[in-house]
Design brief:
It is a single chain. This protein has 86 residues and is α+β, with helices and mostly antiparallel strands. The protein is built from two helices and three strands, in the order αββαβ. It has helices at 5-12, 54-66, and strands at residues 30-36, 39-46, 73-80. A hairpin with a 2-residue loop joins strand 1 and strand 2 (39-46).
């Protein structure tokens, strides 16, 4: 089964920021999603540079995407929101 970008975004809607308790989709933290075969490349922008829960967000995103049929690899890049984006 091939995974579409929309499938990835729908799956990520259930991933909450552990500090703000809102979806990373709702918070506009997901910057880029691309799917190539069974590999998902994704960029997530953290709200602050020294985010203490960076590892937890990484774990939650990877765990949720691993549940999708057709996803074998997740390349996750964590960046930081600018002041304007926050």
């Amino acid at each position: 089964m091939t995974v579409a970008e929309t499938d990835v975004l729908e799956a990520l809607a259930s991933v909450e920021d552990p500090e703000l308790h809102r979806s990373i989709i709702e918070l506009d933290m997901v910057r880029r999603v691309s799917v190539s075969g069974s590999t998902v490349d994704i960029e997530v922008a953290l709200t602050v540079a020294g985010c203490p829960l960076r590892g937890e967000i990484d774990r939650r995103v990877r765990a949720r995407l691993a549940e999708l049929d057709g996803v074998d690899e997740v390349n996750l890049e964590l960046t930081v929101m600018s002041d304007e984006q926050r």
